[in-house]
Amino acid sequence: MSEGEYKILDTKGRFAQAVKDGRTINDVSWTQGRILLSNRRIILASNQGKRTIPLSKIKGLGGRHDPNQNIAAVSSYLSLKIDNDVMLVSASDHEEFQQSVYKAMLDQKVAKAKHPAVAGGVVQDTPWEKARMKVEEDAIAAALKSGSFVRLDLDDISGVETDQRTVDGEKRVVIQVSHVEGDTSVETHLTGPKRVCMFLQSFLAEGERRSQTNVDLSEADKEVLMALYSGVSPFEIPAFIGKDVDKVEEIFERLIELDIVDEVRVRHEVTLNSRGRNIASEAMNDQ
């Protein structure tokens, strides 16, 4: 490796080129091999040879791109957009590989943050300040120049939007992240170089996807969620909604499986997570 380059991940997997020079390859198939990731490049090595992809050439990270059934049969892979090409990479541990790629793209990169830009629905007079990024498990951590620290957990994010704003006299893309901090709904705004913003938005959008509320819930499920949202203790819910303890236990089990509530202890104490709060809020608005 060259000076200043270091290895982030060395794993097995498979890969395929799905698009070449802007054209989809319909008869593409997977090649088994080794995947090496450093802070500067990805190397895909197999018996057929080696392809080196400088990280600086990657123009975006995507999800599924299924030109045929052979590719579609693989449950998890990452699409790398490289100029007019698209490479698909399916590592033995997809989550580890995906997080490692984001670490390579974002770790130690400097952006600007305004935190909180909005708190409890009220716009704050918070200045922009430099923020050094770090990718953690399911989170972006930012160390601000003032010495404060911001952690954006994917599970606490309810929305990610972008806007064009003037920041320090320049037109910039601003990422507006809606999330929960303690018991308060806040917005953190982020901006920086175009490439950093692109990968930041891509990473944080996973949190927005997790918080989506389009799940099929029964009226009983919604009653339990609204009770929790209103501050009713899990142990008081059977009496509060007029249902048997065993029935409420079944509902808790289902909501845990749907990742709407987090289990605190058995038998059964639960607490709403960010996704659950979003769903409960919508259910109450529909009443």
Overall shape: it is globular
Helix count equals: 7
Per CATH, what is the topology of the largest domain?
A: PH-domain like
| % residues in beta strands | 35-45%
CATH architecture classification name of the largest domain: Roll
Summing up helix and strand content along with how strands pair, one would put the structural category as alpha+beta
Give the biggest beta sheet. 8 strands, antiparallel
Tally of strands? 18
CATH superfamily of the largest domain: Pleckstrin-homology domain (PH domain)/Phosphotyrosine-binding domain (PTB)
Tally the structural domains. 3
Q: What separation lies between the terminal Cα atoms?
A: 61 Å
Question: What do you see in this structure?
Answer:
Helices cover 26% and strands 43% of the residues. With 287 residues, the chain is an alpha+beta fold. The longest helix has 17 residues, at 194-210. The N and C termini lie far apart (61 Å). The mean pLDDT is 87.
In short:
The protein has 287 residues and is of the alpha+beta class. The chain has helices at residues 69-72, 94-106, 194-210, 219-229, 237-241, 245-257, 274-286; strands spanning 7-20, 23-24, 31-38, 41-46, 49-54, 58-62, 78-82, 85-91, 110-119, 122-123, 129-136, 139-144, 149-153, 157-167, 170-181, 184-191, 261-265, 269-272.
SSE topology sketch:
Layout: E1 7-20, E2 23-24, E3 31-38, E4 41-46, E5 49-54, E6 58-62, H1 69-72, E7 78-82, E8 85-91, H2 94-106, E9 110-119, E10 122-123, E11 129-136, E12 139-144, E13 149-153, E14 157-167, E15 170-181, E16 184-191, H3 194-210, H4 219-229, H5 237-241, H6 245-257, E17 261-265, E18 269-272, H7 274-286
Antiparallel strand pairs: 1-2, 1-3, 1-8, 3-4, 4-5, 6-7, 7-8, 9-10, 9-11, 9-16, 11-12, 12-13, 14-15, 15-16, 17-18
Helix pairs in contact: 4-7
